[in-house]
Amino acid sequence: QLMILLEPLVMAQKWNLLLRQKGIHAGFGNLVRLIFTSNFLSVFLATSLGADAARVFLMTRLKHDLTHSTASLLADRLLGLAAIALLSLGGIAVAGDRLPEGLGVTAILAICVIALVGVATLMSPLPIAVVRGVERFLRWTYDAAIERAIEEQRP
Questions:
Q1: CB 114 within 8 A of CB 81
Q2: CA 118 to chain centre
Q3: In whole angstroms, what is the distance from residue 31 CA to residue 22 CA?
Q4: Phi, psi dihedral angles at 21 (to 5 degrees)
Q5: pTM over 0.85
Q6: pLDDT tens digits, the chain, 155 residues: what are they?
Q7: Which of 16, 47, 89, 104 is the most exposed place for a label (fewest CB within 10 A)?
């Protein structure tokens, strides 16, 4: 039960470090609050994507940049993928001879490829480009909705 309470604190510290790399100083307390709020919302939204969207939305309400907030969240997810890959490699090493013939080598190769793709994606400008594209689309959609609302109000 203690780990359940510590997990959001560790997540907040990790996210805080990623945000600081982008020049965003949101404050540890604010990030803990955001993570507890998004974890609560994820119970109702039933997906981790909903929790991530809530975190980004709440960061923008604190007047932080959408692009960098989202990019830091993507980096967090990719780091999580790398951690799972490393743990899987450790599990394969421990299982050793108990694995069926050839499965260990195949699993190691698959995990290495996934980890390399994750790291390459993290190091490339792709996450920022994707986030900026989504941000432009959302702004365009929002602007179009505002224009329609203004047009409807005109006599």
A1: yes
A2: 13
A3: 15
A4: -65, -25
A5: no
A6: 788 788 889 988 988 888 888 788 888 998 898 888 888 877 777 666 677 777 887 788 878 777 777 777 887 887 887 788 888 888 877 887 787 777 777 877 888 887 777 777 766 777 667 767 777 776 777 677 777 777 777 76
A7: 47
